Amino acid sequence: MLEVTEIAFTAYPARDVAALARFYSETLGIAFDEPYSEKGVALYCEARVGSGYFSLMTVAWMEVAPGSCASIAFEVADIEAAFATLRERGVSTEEIHVTPVCKLGSFTDPEGNKVTLHESTVTP
User: What percent of the chain lies above the pLDDT cut of 90?
Assistant: First the structure.
């Protein structure tokens, strides 16, 4: 039987990998490793988030346009506080949706990729 146990990585396409890494660092506090570069152009970088990786790759490597990929969801402890911080940093957010098991809401990064923040409301 096949069993998926965790997310290994999620990769987003970017026209400018270094600039998009700075955006995520400044807005969400995600610390990226130094980008892999060729001829002075950042092609790939990744950040460890929990047990997985969030990666940014140049559009030439992924052969897809920014904003055309599925979303990633980052877990946060307090989505209302997280959204307030994003708004203070100039990021437009969608409304927070409340479900029986979570609260979630999204914003769009500078490359057009959708990013979701998720707060579990289920007690383990």
Answer: 34
Say yes or no to pLDDT of 71 above 70: no
The tally of domains found in the chain comes to 1
Q: Give a yes or no: residue 3 inside a domain.
A: no
Rounded Cα–Cα distance for residues 118 and 83 (Å): 11
pLDDT of residue 1: 44
In a domain, 1, yes or no: no
Beta bridge partners of residue 73, listed in sequence order:
116
pLDDT the model gives residue 28: 93
Pairing between strand 72-75 and 97-98? unpaired
Interatomic CA distance for residues 46 and 36, integer angstroms: 9
Q: What type of residue is 121?
A: T
> Residue for token digits 């029986």?
100
Best CA proximity match to 49, nearest among 18, 78, 10, 86 = 10
